[in-house]
Amino acid sequence: MKLTGAQILLKCLEKEGVDVMFGFPGGAVIDIYDEIPKSSVEHILARHEQGAIHAADGYARATGQVGVCLVTSGPGATNTVTGIATAYMDSIPVVILTGQVPRALIGNDAFQEVDIVGITRPCTKHNYLVQDIEELAVTVKQAFYLARSGRPGPVLVDLPKDVMQQIGEFHYPETVEMRSYNPTQKPHVGQIRKVMKLLKKAKRPLIYSGGGVITSGSHEELTWLARNLRMPVTSTLMGLGAFPGDDELFLGMLGMHGTFAANMAVNNCDLLLAVGARFDDRVTGKVDTFAPKATIIHIDVDPTSIQKNVSVHVPLVADCKSALAALKVESEASLDDHDWKEDHREWVDQVQAWGKEHPLTYKDDDVVIKPQYVVEKIYEITKGDAIIATEVGQNQMWAAQFYKYTKPNTLLTSGGLGTMGFGFPAAMGAQRAFRDKLVIDIAGDGSIQMCIQEMMTVVCNKLPVKIVILNNGYLGMVRQWQELFYDKNYCETCLDAQPDFVKLAEAYGAVGFRVTEKKDVESTLREAFAVDKPVIVDIRVAREENVYPMVPAGASLTEMLLV
Amino acid sequence: MKKHTLSVMVENEPGVLSRVSGLFSGRGFNIYSLNVAPTLEKGVSLMTIVAEGDDQIIEQIVKQLRKLVPTIKVKDLTEMKSVEREMVLIKVNAEDSKRAEILRIVDIFRCKVVDVSVDELTIEVTGDQGKIGALTSLLTRFGIKEIARTGNVALQRSMQIDL
User: Fold this and answer.
1) Record: contact A121-B66, CB cut-off 8 A
2) pLDDT for A115-129, tens place per residue?
3) CB nearest B60 (choices: A179, A180, A304)
4) Do B72 and A304 touch (CB under 8 A)?
C-alpha cells in the first residue's frame, strides 16, 4: 500500500496504540495535520508548545504509557526543550515529533529552521532526523521502543516536510532490532543472594525508594518486601506513592525537605537499600556524611546511576521490578525460619519514635491561612484519591509533605529539573487520560503564570482540572533562601503585582474562587472540587511561611532546621 | 589522574561523533585525544579516545559511553594488554648546519622525512607516547614550526600476555 509520509506517521502512531497527542501546528507539519482528522489518534491543541510537551509528560506519568507531542519546526521545536529536559531528568517516556524544513533547505538558515536534533542531543535519550520515507516507520518504532524500555526517557523524531510528502510503501516492523541497545533487565543471581544475605544480617535496614519503582511498576513488590521483612521506607520526591504514605513503616520523604525521622534513619541505618533512586544532591546533602554507618545496596536499571554520586557496596543493575521480584522469591522461604519482625523491632520502634519526636508540622493560625493547612484539607477532602500535580517551589514541597500518596502515578511533579509551569499542563495531560478522576494542580502564584495560557485548552477540551493556588505573593522558595541565607534581601521575588486570578479564570470560561479567610478554605475547596469545569481557587496564604525541615544546601542530613 | 585509552565501537550514523564529544563536554570530562574512522564492518566506526581522570571518573565515562544508543562496545584498553600508536607530522627548522644532526635523529628513531625544503624538514613518526615524547623533546631545540598529530589509535592484543 502506497502512502505519504504523513499517512505512514499516523499509521505508526495507531500501531503503537497512541490514543491522544498534544501539539501545535505550523508550516512544517501541515501535511501531518492534514491527515489527523482521518486518523484514530486524537489531537489536543495546546496554546503553547511548552504546554503540549508537559501535557504529554503528565499523560505519561499518570498512565505509564508513552506520551506524544507534535510541534512544528524552529520555534515550535525550541519551545519544547524545557519540557524535554524535564522528562529526561525524571525518566519519563515521551515521543516528540517535530517538523523540519524540507531536506534541501536543511543547513541554509531557512525560515523556521533550527537544528533541534543538535539542540536536544544532551536532553533526550536519543533523537533522530528522518532522512527518507524508507526510514520513517522503523524510526518511529525505535523511538517508542527506546522511550519506554530500559531507563525510559524522551525521544525526539525530526520530520522534514518533504519526507512527509514523499510516497512510500508502509510496513510496520513487528520487532525492534538494535545491536547497539540492549538494556539489562534481569538481575544477577549472585548479587541477589548477596543482597539477601546482607538483609538477613542487618539490624537497622532502610529502604530508600525512588522514581524507578514507579516507572517500573514495582510498587507491589516493594510494599511486600517492606512489610514482610519489616523494613522502614523513605522515599524521594519522585518515588512518593510507590509505598503507601499512610503505612506505619513509611517515614516520609528524605533529603533537603525530608522528615526528621527519614533523615535520622538514613544517618543511623546499617543497611540502605536504594531502589530506583539516583542519590541526587537534594537527597544526599553532603555526600561524605550520607548514610555513614550503612552498607549501601543500589538497584538501578541504568548503570551510570550507580557509583555516580555515592560509592555503594553492592551494585545491582536490573529493572527494579525484576530485582524486587527476585528478592521477594528469595525471601519468601525465609519467612518461616527468620523472625524479621523481632529482628527489626528495636529499629522500627526507634524510627517511629523519631517520627513522634519531630513530626511534619507547622504553626497553625486561627486567622491567617497556612499553606500546609490547605494541602492537609485537600488530602482530607479527596481522601487521597486524586491525582496531584505540583508546580515547583514551596507549593511542591508542601504538596509532597502534607498529602499522603497511597498509590503510584498519583503525584506528578518535576523533581529533577524543577520546572516552574510544569504542573498545570501536566495535570491537563493526566485529566485527558483519566477524565473521571479528580486532578488537582497545587500551584504557587509564581509558577502558575508560566503556563497559564493552557486555561483555554482545558476549558475547550472539557478537562476539569482544579488549580489550587497557594498565593503568597512571592516566589516563595527563593524568598525563603533569601531570608535564611541572604540577609532577607528579597530581590525580585516579591510578586504583589499579580492578576485577579478569579477574573482570569472567568475570562477563559472557567470558574474562579478566592479564599481569604481560614474558615472558608474547606467549604470552598469542596465546592470547587464538585464543579465539573476547570477551576482556579486563589487562596491567600501566610506570606512568609517557610518549608521545614530544611537541610541547608551542602550540609549533612542531620543538620536540619526544624519548625 | 591517569590517562586511559578507550576503544569505542559505534554505529556510523550522523551525529554520533557529536553525541560522544557532547557527552564529554556536558559532563565535564577531560578528553585528551580522539580518533575516529570506519572499520571493515559496514556501518561501524571505531573511536579511540584518550581520556583523563581518576578511577571513578573513568568508570563514569565508560558507563556513559555505553549508555549512548549508537554505542556497540566500549573497552578500556588501559586495563588490558594493547598496542597503541600515534602518527605525528613534525615540521622542524633545518638550516644546513643542523640538517645532518636532525637526519641522524630521524634515523635513530626510525622515522621518515616526507617533505624537504631549503631550511625545513617534515618528519613522519609513528610510535607510542614515549617515543613521540622523546622525539619531540629532542627536536625542540632546532625549533619545531608545526606539528600535526592523529591522536592514539589502539587495539587490544590478541594474546593477553607480556611480550
Assistant:
1) no
2) 999 999 999 999 999
3) A304
4) no
- CA B58 to chain CA centroid, nearest Å: 18
Q: Is B71 on the interface with A (CB under 8 A)?
A: yes
Contact B69 A125 (CB under 8 A): yes
Nearest to B69 by CA among A145, A397, A249: A145
Set A16, A35, A49, A545: catalytic member: A49
Q: How far is B129 from chain A (nearest CA, A)?
A: 30
- Residue of chain B whose Cα is closest to the Cα of A183: B67
For residues A49 and A84, give the distance between their C-alpha atoms in angstroms, rounded to a whole number. Answer: 11
Residue A295, helix vs strand vs coil: strand
A-chain residues near B47 (CB < 8 A): none
Q: Taking the CA of residue A122 as centre, how many other CA atoms within 13 Å lie in the half-sphere pointing to its CB?
A: 11
Q: What span, in angstroms and rounded, lies between the C-alpha atoms of A174 and A118?
A: 29
CB A58 within 8 A of CB A86: no
Cα angle A25, A33, A434 (rounded to 5 degrees) comes to 80
Q: CA–CA distance from A533 to each of A389, A410, B75 (Å)? A: 17, 20, 58
Place of cell 593477553: B160
Beta-carbon separation of B72 and A180 below 8 A: yes
Could you tell me the three cell numbers for B94? 633545518
Q: Which residue has the cell 517515614?
A: A251
* Average pLDDT of the residues in A402-424: 98
E strands within A407-559? 411-412, 439-444, 466-471, 511-515, 535-540
Active site residue A112: yes
Q: What is the pLDDT of residues A237-275, one digit of tens each?
A: 999 999 999 999 999 999 999 999 999 999 999 999 999
pLDDT confidence band for B163 (50 / 70 / 90):
low
Sequence letter at residue A25: P
CA separation for the pair A293, B30 (Å, rounded): 34
What pLDDT, in 10s, does the model give residues B32-41?
999 999 999 9
Mean local confidence (pLDDT), A179-206? 94
CA distances from B52 to A310, B55, B57, B65 (A): 20, 10, 8, 15
ipTM for the whole complex: 0.89
- Maximal CA-CA distance, chain A: 73
- Whether A111 is catalytic: yes
- pLDDT, one tens digit per residue, over B8-67 is 999 999 899 999 999 999 999 989 999 999 999 999 999 999 999 999 999 999 999 999
Handedness of CA A265, A270, A275, A280 (dihedral sign): positive
Number of neighbours of residue A145 by Cβ within 10 angstroms: 18
